[in-house]
Design brief:
The complex is a heterodimer of chains A (189) and B (363). By secondary structure, chain A is an alpha/beta fold. Chain A is built from 8 helices and 4 strands. Chain A has helices at residues 17-24, 37-52, 54-59, 76-87, 94-97, 104-113, 129-140, 177-185; strands at 65-71, 119-123, 146-154, 159-167. In chain A, strands 2-1-3-4 form a 4-stranded mixed β-sheet, sandwiched between helices. Helices cover 37% and strands 15% of the residues of chain B. Chain B has 12 helices and 10 strands. Chain B has a 6-stranded mixed β-sheet, sandwiched between helices. In chain B, helix 10 links the parallel strand 9 and strand 10. In chain B, helix 3 runs parallel beside helix 5 (129-140). The longest helix of chain B has 15 residues, at 291-305. Classes of the chains: A alpha/beta (189), B alpha/beta (363).
Chain lengths: 189, 363
């Protein structure tokens, strides 16, 4: 978090990495357990950013915080789980089906925070800083005060999460594609 | 700035063009009937377009693999476009929306794939939602701006909203906007698994309602600016004066009991239009017939209008819930409502919802 190590994977735990984080951060949102890994990752990373900027994020109006997320593999983990539920178990599960769209993570973050602002999920071939720059530029010039943005790519073998907060009237690092790429490459999350 | 609506087109369970739909609405002739076109679900109550694919193909004079979704969309889009010639100085576009895309063809592919191992892979080319729009665009010769939205049941009106904004921003001079969905096993089984498919005829806004009947069809509207009508000579049927969308931030698939999202959207749309609430004379409601939607929508209407809720009704008992097409079909119904000074009856209503007590127009 902002260059600091805030959690470390414990290979001896029976919990997966995302559940370890949830417990480690002492969060209390039971709905977390119903979410698919993509939504869990979005929820956890947004909570982490909130915890780091408690005063400012809470002061925005509920429709002034926009969400802009993207990834490469869409909702593939849930897609495969749902396919398994009807092909192998012969019982299609509505609770899995709900997560067979990647933009559901936007809904989960919005629901957890009661945020009514703009939101966008894009499926891109790879991390594209210019996508965030252009999209955030439009949002911050059309009513949004802050943009919670990120790259959330989850497959069965890998969890790649990079979340960042852009604010109209507050800046620690200048927002441009060069800086964004540098942060992403250095995994300074 | 107002946006002109200069053309409309409809295909639904109650008619294959605007005139036929209007006649059914006027005479109270509903389109909900036992399913015929999907063999393994025969008998389920749906709002089916009363033409088989082969009949649609020959009427529309198309070739190759094409989804039922594209066929229905093309039929309504042609009516709205009305043979308008293209013009090199006008920027034209199409924004169509769908939730199932070419799923009807993919289901045939999948069946063949499992059964004989020799499926027609060409069918899969129609699967993508964007393909439905591209087929319609190609048939109408629209080559500039082609976009496809898929936002479930709000798709059709989101297409309208985006089209209006592109005109207002001067990005386009004329744009065909709308939505289309065909009945598929995918959606029928999906809604049944959510336990919100009524085996009986749906009863929007009624206390005893237990769910929706799915339908299929398409609605398209032609939006033009002044530069475009100067060349097309089209008459203005109606104006788009206000629009808004908003989120509920409540649940992935359910509306909030306090109607927050709908309240925000209605408030902002009216405010953008500059009209007073008391100037709204009719609300064509979404009214799907599910417990959740109708309650949430009723609460939103009360939030906005208090004790003075305007006349309102749902046309879902005529057409079924046509998903991505619903907003577009009902936008065309609303244009017809203004043109002909008509309010459509909310069929099957008997008892008001206990929590809100709202009574729709029934005749």
């Amino acid at each position: 978090m902002n260059g600091k190590l805030v959690a470390q994977y414990d290979p001896s735990s029976t919990d997966g990495w995302l559940k370890q984080l949830y417990k480690g951060f002492q969060l209390n949102y039971p709905k977390f357990y119903k979410m698919d890994p993509l939504a869990q990752a979005g929820y956890l990373s947004s909570e982490l950013i909130k915890a780091n900027h408690p005063d400012r994020l809470l002061n925005y109006k509920d429709d002034a915080i926009a969400l802009v997320l993207a990834n490469r593999h869409a909702s593939v983990v849930s897609d495969l789980a749902f396919k398994n539920s009807y092909e192998i178990q012969n019982a299609p599960s509505p609770s899995l089906f709900v997560y067979t769209l990647p933009n559901i993570v936007l809904g989960e973050v919005a629901i957890a925070n009661k945020w009514y602002g703009e939101n966008m999920f894009a499926v891109l071939p790879k991390f594209a800083p210019e996508f965030y720059e252009q999209y955030a530029d439009i949002l911050l010039n059309s009513g949004s005060e802050a943009v919670l943005a990120g790259w959330l790519d989850i497959t069965d073998s890998e969890i790649e999460v990079f979340m960042f907060l852009l604010e109209k009237s507050f800046s620690e690092i200048k927002f441009n594609t060069v800086n964004l790429l540098k942060l992403a490459e250095n995994r300074v999350v | 700035m107002s946006v002109r609506i200069t053309g409309i087109g409809l295909v639904s369970a109650i008619g294959l063009n605007c005139q036929a739909n209007l006649l059914s609405l006027r005479t109270g002739k509903a389109g909900i009937a036992p399913l015929r076109n999907l063999s393994d679900r025969e008998g389920l109550l749906v709002g089916e377009v009363k033409l088989r694919n082969e009949e649609l193909v020959s009427r529309l004079n198309v070739t190759d693999h094409i989804s039922r979704t594209s066929l229905l969309g093309l039929m309504a889009a042609r009516e709205a476009w009305n043979d308008m010639p293209h013009h090199s100085s006008l920027k034209a576009g199409i924004i169509s929306s769908t939730s199932v895309g070419g799923m009807d063809r993919s289901e045939i592919f999948y069946r063949d794939y499992l059964n004989q191992g020799n499926p027609d892979y060409g069918l899969l080319l129609t699967h993508d939602s964007g393909n439905t729009t591209e087929r319609i665009a190609a048939a109408l010769g629209i080559t500039g701006y082609i976009n496809t939205l898929s936002t479930a049941c709000s798709s059709g009106v989101n297409a309208m909203m985006l089209g209006a904004r592109l005109l207002q921003q001067g990005k386009l001079d004329r744009v065909l906007v709308g939505g289309v969905d065909a009945l598929t096993r995918f959606t029928i089984n999906g809604f049944r698994s959510l336990m919100i498919y009524d085996e009986a005829w749906c009863r929007p806004f009624d206390e005893t309602r237990t769910g929706l009947n799915l339908g299929e069809g398409a609605g398209f509207l032609l939006l033009e600016n002044e530069k475009s009508i100067a060349i097309s000579g089209n008459k203005t049927l109606c104006y788009v004066n206000g629009y808004a969308n908003a989120a509920d931030a409540y649940h992935q698939t359910a509306s909030s009991p306090d109607g927050k999202g709908a309240t925000l959207a209605i408030e902002q749309a009216i405010s953008r239009s500059g009209l007073g609430k008391d100037q709204i004379s009719y609300i064509n409601a979404h009214g799907t017939g599910t417990k959740n939607n109708d309650l949430s929508e009723s609460v939103a209407l009360k939030n906005i209008f208090g004790d003075n809720v305007p006349k309102f009704s749902s046309t879902k008992p005529f057409t079924g819930h046509t998903l991505a097409a619903a907003g577009a079909i009902e936008a065309v119904f609303s244009v017809l409502s203004i043109q002909h000074n008509l309010i459509y009856p909310n069929l099957n209503f008997q008892t008001p919802i206990e929590e809100t007590g709202l009574i729709p127009v029934t005749e």
